[in-house]
Amino acid sequence: MCGIFGYIGFRKATPLLIEGLRQMEYRGYDSAGVCLSEKNGLKAVKAKGRVGELVKKAANQDLASTIGIAHTRWATHGAPSEKNAHPHLDCQGDIAVVHNGIIENYQALKKILEKEGHCFVSETDSEVISHLIEKFSEGASFEGAVLKTLKILQGTFGLAVVKAGEDKIIGARKGSPFILGLGDGEMFLASDASAILKYTKKVVYLDDGEMVTIGKDGFLTRKLNGEVSEKEVCELKWNAEQIEKGGFKHFMLKEIFEQPQAVANTLRGRLASDTVKLSVDIDAKAVNRIVIMACGTSFYSGLIGKQLIEKFCRVRVDVEYASEFRYRDPIVDKDDLAVVISQSGETADTLAALKEAKERGAKTLGIVNVVGSTIAREVDCGIYLHAGPEISVAATKAFTCQIAALALLTAFLQEQRTGRADPEFLRELAGLPEKIQDILDHPQEISKIAEVFRKTRNALYLGRGFNYPLALEGALKLKETSYIHAEGYPAAEMKHGPIALIDENMPAVFIATKDQTYEKILSNMQEIKARGGRILAIVNPRDKEASNLADWIIETPVVMECLSPMVNVVPLQLLAYYVADAKGIDVDKPRNLAKSVTVE
Ligand code: M6R
Questions:
Q1: pTM score
Q2: Of 176, 347, 593, which is best to mutate to test ligand 1, by the most ligand atoms within 8 angstroms of its C-beta?
Q3: Are residues 393 and 535 in the same domain?
Q4: Helices marked H in 360-461 — which ranges?
């Protein structure tokens, strides 16, 4: 996690560093800091809390330099505090480092360095980096000392270093995202393209195990063995407006409302009335089994993907938590297709699972939003979501677009295997952006229901079949944005335990749209009513039975059952948003979370 930013050029660096951190605050927000390379040496300013706190502290400082690095932190080693905030300096205060990732051998390194007389001020793993560079600086160039340091670090890093008296910044990456922005007489380093989009669209993606030295007019990349590497300059497709709130109170709300357009973008150019076009090089007939790996919301879209692919393609699909997959001895081989789903394309667990599947010979396919991200570059082939930047920590449009991409993959596989994709499925898929829009045209009723839900401390989300993963996703949205304990369950499992929790204080949210389990869901609702529970039901228009059993209803349009999660999720997202907002929570940056989890 954490966001790092670096600038070297002709402008005063501090405002750019602060702006860069603001754009990346979603990556971590428990402390922040900057370090400027001033004429008379390095000057670091750090603050506990949000970037706003750093701005207050930096206001009293005379920071004139045009070279600097900055960091916004999501704590792993050491509590959120000023002393643990980055940048971390060496003993002399001449070398400063910002780091994203985890240095796994830091304890052993710290012991050695302490024995040699280095004094540590923080509890972080990152501080060893500046002390190691200091140690290796004797008789070596700045680059030479950084290279030596990088070679002995175990774990993951995206990092940037400045040294007093050096008109350059050195950056490096291994397992953490890192991008270089090329301006005119200025250069940028960042964990995420969104932070540099305002200044340039020309970027270079650093590969794992690469180091870069940047000056204001150029850059030089090397591998860790010192060999110079050639880099391709790429053009960013996103624009600066996409990373603004555009009149919405929060990014989460904006991103919920963007869903019709985002889903249309995922489908654009890929869907025709009788066929699907994907540039994925898969021998669909040879695929024996599919294993989907992902985390969080992406895992839940994977559960829906499993049902879609099994229904239409009759191929066995297993869905695995990426974080669990690599820590056993998974059965994967060359006849398997490993599908990794990740909005950010940087989730460490998903990346590790992908590597594991690759090593075992599986063909790999990524369903990713962020173009050029690590996962997007590691997979054999992929489907980009084209959903535009998702800034809010809570995933919303990524989820619907992931299902859209999985539906495209389903139709593609079905066509390859059987010679024909189901035309009704393709037609329904094409009509989804409009159906999602129908729900977004009436958000007011949901905000009224949120007034009731904000007072609850627990909630149960229940669904069946294709809408069971939605119960999990609805519950996740509520807990992460509103800090209300919520559990998602297959509705029929309720009677095997969770029903004991039901009383008038524990509302149940049912996804009760008309599908093959509708009658069963009605019985499950009866069971809750019989125990004095209150029910919010997501129902289709003109539904009588489910509506009569519910205390509150939200209507969603009729959609083919297997695609219904794409519309039914929208009220669940809005409910979570309105409850969080009514509780006065910083919706886009809920406590303890970060947008992309780049540590294991
Ligand atoms: O970027 P990814 O899709 O790989 O991220 C996976 C999860 O970290 C993410 O979905 C997380 O659960 C969100 N906070 C959910 O809203």
A1: 0.80
A2: 347
A3: no
A4: 374-378, 397-418, 423-440, 444-453
Report residue 160 as tokens. 């940037």
Paired tokens of 157:
């890093």
**64-86 average pLDDT score:** 91
Domain with residue 483: its CATH number is 3.40.50.10490
Q: Are residues 580 and 498 in the same domain?
A: yes
Identify whether 597 is part of a domain.
no
Q: Output the CA 299–ligand 1 centroid distance in Å.
A: 8
Q: Say how many domains are in the chain.
A: 3
Sole residue written with tokens 């250069």: 187
Q: Both 190 and 56 in a single domain? A: yes
**Average per-residue pLDDT in the chain?**
93
Calculate the CA dihedral of residues 430, 434, 440, 445 and round it to 10 degrees. -110
* Residue 599 pLDDT: 66
> Does 448 lie in the same domain as 507?
yes
401-453 per-position pLDDT tens digit: 999 999 999 999 999 999 999 999 999 999 999 999 999 998 888 989 999 99
Contacts for 324-331 with beta carbons within 8 Å, 24 or more apart? 325/293, 325/353, 325/356, 325/357, 326/352, 326/353, 326/355, 326/356, 330/291, 330/356, 330/357, 330/360
Q: Is the CB of 342 under 6 A from ligand 1?
A: yes
- Ligand 1 atom showing the smallest separation from residue 294 Cα: 4
Residue 594 lies in a domain: no
Q: Please name the residue ranges forming H helices in 314-396.
A: 322-325, 348-359, 374-378
pLDDT tens, residue by residue, 218-277: 999 999 888 999 999 999 887 777 777 878 999 999 999 999 999 999 999 999 888 999
* Segments forming the whole domain that contains residue 446: 440-586
User: Do 512 and 521 form a contact (C-beta atoms < 8 A)?
Assistant: yes
- Report if residue 141 sits inside a domain: yes
2 counts as catalytic: yes
Mutate to test the pocket of ligand 1, among 596, 598, 599 (most ligand atoms within 8 A of CB): 596
- The residues with which 321 forms a beta bridge, in sequence order, are 294
Residue 470 lies in a domain: yes
Block residue for tokens 């869905």: 319
Give 478 Cα–ligand 1 centroid separation in angstroms: 14
With a 6 Å cutoff on the Cβ, whether 393 touches ligand 1 is yes
pLDDT greater than 90 at residue 498: no
Query: Does position 88 have pLDDT exceeding 90, yes or no?
Result: yes
Q: Which atom of ligand 1 is nearest to the CA of 593?
A: 14
For residue 36, pLDDT over 80 is answered with yes
**Ligand 1 centre and the CA of 72: distance in Å?**
19
**Interatomic CA distance for residues 275 and 574, integer angstroms:** 33
**Residues 305 and 259 grouped into a single domain:** yes
For 140-158, the pLDDT digits (tens) are 999 999 999 999 999 989 9
Say what the pLDDT of residue 77 is.
85
Ligand 1 pocket member 400 (CB < 6 A): no
